[in-house]
Design brief:
By secondary structure, the protein is an alpha/beta fold. It folds into two domains: about 325 residues, FAD/NAD(P)-binding domain (3-Layer(bba) Sandwich), CATH 3.50.50; about 180 residues, Cholesterol Oxidase, domain 2 (2-Layer Sandwich), CATH 3.30.410.40. Strands 1, 2, 11, 12, 13, 14 and 25 form a seven-stranded mixed sheet that branches. Strands 7, 17, 18, 19, 20, 23 and 24 form a seven-stranded antiparallel sheet that branches. A hairpin with a 2-residue loop joins strand 12 and strand 13. The longest helix is centred in the last third of the chain and has 16 residues.
């Protein structure tokens, strides 16, 4: 006989970890979590700078790649996601970023009741354990995920901030307060020099409960259906291995992420009829929006070579200097081993006259080799990058075969909407401007990428197409919306339209992109979902 639990959760990433912890607080409810990856024992996971190692490690990641397109210079783009306890929270850049209130207000305006920023603010606060100043009293203090300020600073970063302020961009002490515009240092999920993933902060403490079982190396390959009702999940531990089944008395909840959740629904017979027919998958429930509405932030970076004698991250990560940094980290002192990949934020406007920022820009006193992922340059360098908050371009995720061991087609259609071009170009020109302020110029020898020869809009756009990349902020393939929306996959309770006892709780339900990294909002979505599933009233603001 198959194992049986009240709830079966597919995926132990940010959403799955939060949901499992909350549901298992009810002693009378049994919960089983199926995680496709291994336990989070790899030591590089817990060292913040270790993301350079884990991002390229297929043992703990899904090494997804997008389809090549003209708008990416014919390149496929690596779109890595976490495949380990904690999911992408175990390999990401650890930046904590809620975005703008208008992001969620727009969700509510689309007919999703209870999803405005005012509705969601208590759920952001529930997850947070803000350590440090909270001048606007907008943060939580008792949550499981520490939100800390940076403690390692570099003179070039200080110069970049000073230059931005001199250029008219205000210093913002807390971009998560609801007022995002400005420049400053990112908040991050690091405590005492170590990453605190959703697995470490939320799931691990809950795993001591007898009513919660977490199974690793368990790749879901089918949602088990009886008519229009989800009753369980089948999974395998290896390709071609035995298929096991775990049954759900109450609900099956998909938390596999934007790519995997859409793919699992499709191979289970839930999705666009034409796609399922092409795969040879029997149609159990036609739902046109499954896998559509895929969105991501497309980032482009400007790189400068620093003047001789400037010591950047490039030099600090090698030789005797690295030994010294390791020693500092081991002693609990500020070190490059405990920094986020992008240290400085700039939330600003692509054009004067906009009411709120439409750009997220980042700066770090280091640079990577052109065309290489996370391989530092041999010379001292610095990098500034920009991307559009709310891209209009959207694509799809589609299973390539019924076999979940074969990667799906991921087509983001970056820059396919002409309206995205001027925003991105405005961001790149802003980055060049900020790298040319007197404060920063004192450290700059030359712009190396794209170089001063790139000046016109067409030249900038060509550069962006050939050099841009993902920010790993994948959303939207199971978007939330009322049943009057033909592209909606889940309703405002995150239940799959037309199905029973099947829910989606991850970034795939976001109907539009948030003006932020997606981690914080994904956890808040899971907090809200847990209350809905437990029949609890929303918390007071």
């Amino acid at each position: 006989m198959a194992d049986e639990f009240d709830y079966v959760i597919v995926g132990a990433g940010a959403a799955g970890s939060v949901l499992a912890a909350r549901l298992s607080e009810d002693a009378g409810a049994t919960v089983c979590v199926l995680e496709a990856g291994p336990p989070d024992r790899n030591p590089w996971i817990h060292i913040p700078a270790g993301f350079i190692k884990t991002m390229a490690n297929p043992a703990v990641t899904w090494q997804f790649r997008t389809e090549p397109t003209e708008n990416t210079g014919g390149r496929p783009i690596a779109t890595v996601q976490g495949r380990v306890l904690g999911g992408s929270s175990s390999i990401n850049g650890m930046i904590y970023n809620r975005g703008q209130p208008a992001d969620l207000d727009s969700w509510a305006q689309r007919g999703n009741r209870g999803w405005s920023y005012a509705d969601m603010l208590p759920y952001y606060r529930r997850t947070e354990r803000r350590i440090g100043a909270d001048p606007f009293d907008r943060h939580g203090r008792e949550g499981s995920i520490p939100v800390t300020d940076q403690d390692w600073f570099h003179p070039v970063s200080e110069a970049f901030i000073a230059g931005a302020v001199a250029a008219g961009i205000p210093r913002n002490p807390d971009y998560n307060s609801g007022e995002q515009a400005g420049v400053g240092y990112f908040q991050r999920a690091i405590l005492n020099g170590r990453r605190v993933s959703a697995a470490r902060g939320v799931l691990k403490p809950a795993m001591a409960r007898p009513n919660l079982e977490v199974r690793t190396n368990a790749r879901a390959c089918q949602v088990v259906l009886e008519g229009k009702r989800a009753v369980g999940v089948q999974y395998q531990s290896r390709r071609g291995g035995a298929v096991r089944e775990v049954r759900a008395r109450r609900e099956v909840v998909l938390c596999g992420g934007t790519v995997n959740t859409a793919r699992l629904l499709q191979v289970s017979g839930i999705g666009p009829a034409a796609l399922l027919a092409s795969l040879g998958v029997p149609i159990r429930h036609e739902l046109a929006g499954v896998g559509e509405n895929f969105r991501d932030h497309y980032a482009v970076r400007v790189v400068c070579r620093a003047k001789r004698g400037t010591v950047t991250l490039n030099e600090m990560a090698r030789g005797p200097r690295l030994v010294g940094q390791v020693a500092r980290w081991a002693a609990g002192r500020p070190s490059i081993l405990a920094v986020v990949p992008s240290q400085v934020f700039v939330f600003w406007k692509s054009f004067e006259g906009l009411d709120v920022p439409d750009l997220q820009c980042v700066f770090t006193p280091g640079s990577y080799r052109e065309g290489r992922n996370y391989e530092l340059d041999e010379y001292p360098g610095m990098t500034a990058g920009a991307w559009q908050h709310r891209p209009q371009s959207h694509g799809h995720v589609r299973a390539r075969s019924p076999d979940v061991w074969e990667d799906p087609v991921i087509q983001p259609n970056y820059l396919s909407a002409p309206g995205d071009w001027p925003v991105l170009l405005g961001g790149l020109r802003l980055m060049r401007k900020l790298l040319s302020t007197p404060e920063v110029s004192a450290y700059v020898e030359a712009e190396t990428l794209p170089g001063p020869q790139v000046q016109s809009d067409d030249e900038w756009l060509d550069f962006a197409r050939r050099n841009g990349s993902t920010t790993y902020h994948l959303i939207g393939t199971c978007k939330m919306g009322p049943d009057s929306d033909p592209g909606a996959v889940v309703d405002d309770r995150l239940l799959v339209h037309g199905m029973e006892r099947l829910r989606v709780v991850d970034a795939s339900v976001m109907p539009t992109m948030v003006s932020a990294n997606t981690y914080a909002t994904t956890m808040a979505i899971a907090e809200k979902a847990a209350d809905m599933m437990r029949g609890r009233a929303p918390p007071a603001g």
